[in-house]
Amino acid sequence: MSLINEDLQDLLIRYCEPESELLQQIDRETNLKVLMPRMLSGHYQGRILSMLSKMISPKRILEIGTFTGYATLCLAEGLSNEGIIYTLDKNPELEDMVLKNFASSSYHNKIKYILGDANQTLKTLDEVFDLVFIDADKKSNGSYYDLIFSRIRSGGIIIVDNVLWSGKVLQDQQDKDTKNISSFNDKIAKDDRVEKIILPVRDGLFIIRKK
Q1: Residues in Cβ contact with 154 at an 8 Å cutoff, skipping those fewer than 6 apart
Q2: Which of 38, 51, 105, 187 is deepest in the core (most CB within 10 A)?
Q3: Is residue 4 pLDDT above 90, yes or no?
Q4: No. of helices (H) and no. of strands (E), the chain
Q5: In what order do the strands lie in the sheet with 111-115?
Q6: % of the chain exceeding 90 in pLDDT
Q7: In the prediction, which pLDDT does 3 show?
Q8: Which residues are paired to 197 by β-bridges?
Q9: Residues whose CB falls within 8 Å of the CB of residue 40, separated by 6 or more in sequence, listed in order
Q10: pTM
Q11: Do 121 and 89 form a contact (C-beta atoms < 8 A)?
Q12: What's the pLDDT tens digit per position in 79-94?
């Protein structure tokens, strides 16, 4: 999934902040026990999420796609004193692992973990968000974006993962998943309500700022 070679990736990690012991443990356990462990954000991307969150100092964060909770805890590092992060996921099989990971964190009382279809659970949240991280089923990126847009404050940030799709977005002949990613990218490029930039981090992070 990474768009850069291993040597450069190792250098980038060497010059960024270290992972906490808990994050290292989550990474190890995810790789040992969970299918498709590459879905985990990992050290370098996790530090970027943490940095962006700390720069904003959000009161309310929304994450769509919890997986094993690694990115959740990275984002939680920037929460203000009264801050809360809502994290939504539809996979009950990971619930025990996720709850254990959150319970081991100093941010456990700031995390609201909600299982279910995000298209439905999003409608139950009566909040205005400062920061949103979308990292779930890629075909729904557009619908998630539309559902949350009115609940992002002016100046708030939306981060969308996997928007370069291992470089497949460059291909002329695209499969269905790649077409969904490209269509979403085109949708954001045409949206004059936001400022936007793609960072070639890991599998591509779209950073979107609401005007």
Answers
A1: 210, 211
A2: 105
A3: no
A4: 8, 7
A5: 111-115, 84-89, 60-64, 129-134, 152-161, 205-210, 194-199
A6: 96
A7: 76
A8: 207
A9: 26, 27, 30, 31, 67, 68, 70, 71
A10: 0.96
A11: no
A12: 999 999 999 999 999 9
